[in-house]
Amino acid sequence: MAKILSIRDIANELNISKTTISFILNGKAKEKRISDELDESVTKYLAQRDYKPNQLAKSLIMGKTMMIGLMVENISYYFFAQVAYHIEELAYQNGYRIIYCISDNDLHKTQELIGMFRERHVDGYIITPPSGIEKDIKGLLDDGLPVVLFDRYLEGVDTSYVVLDNYKASYDAAKYLTSKGFKNIAFLELDSDQSQMHDRRQVYQDALAESNLPLSIKKIPFISDFDYKVKEMVKFIKKNQQIDAVFFATNYLAFSGIKAINELKMSTHKDLALVAFDDHEVFNIYSPSITAVAQPIRKLARQSINAFLKMLDADGRSNNAEKIEVPAELMIRYSTG
User: Residue 125: which CATH number?
Assistant: First the structure.
């Protein structure tokens, strides 16, 4: 195996000091009054030798690894996959790299993953937090590490977060259904204490109360596969034949709901109007197309990176935390007539 070229080797071959090499590598040639000729000569030599700096050594010098720990609920979900893509893109533009992992909304797993990130000395964290993780997040903040919560927040944890304005987004969707004359609107959600799920349920209840309409809520276990969700929805629709519209709290619940409706030989729009929270590219090509709340994914990602960089510049102090709510858009399509 060929020997890895070191700064010492370069200094010996070019007969200049290791300190001078280090300044040039870190872009400080002008600051340290190193001549343009020497800077160009060293840079050309490094390119010819295909020199790559030792990242661990570089991180020790800079005090940064230029790595961000990104932890989302499930990277296979369309929303989180798109968000992760845009966060990585924006992080790269700012000189950072991303380490991905998924938490499955599991407290113990999330705690283990935070420990793994700590061992790798990431510069900070962007996390979709499960409930119960408050103490661990506070521990990161107490150690001066930037933490941005994404998609949901934690009561009592004073750190930056970026979330959708769930209340207005859900309210607009629910009120649209009541304005269309639907009288028995069901709400299908995950059986979860996540803040955003609570907000969406509360808005559904508020909007229907304003119109004096009955509530019909079905909770689906968070950890359940697609077929189980379909079976539960089939049973729910059979038992509640009076419902004329369904508001799904997530897009993947909507997929299960569409399958359930098909199994029951019912027609979307004619038999049941559908609204999904969180749009999906498939909803616009499905027939009939599905009305959905669209989250501005790139904007959410950009706000997350910006909040992270601000906390990093401020040494992660929690008194610099930003509470960011991003508005959504209701995409009206044929599933609601």
Answer: 3.40.50.2300
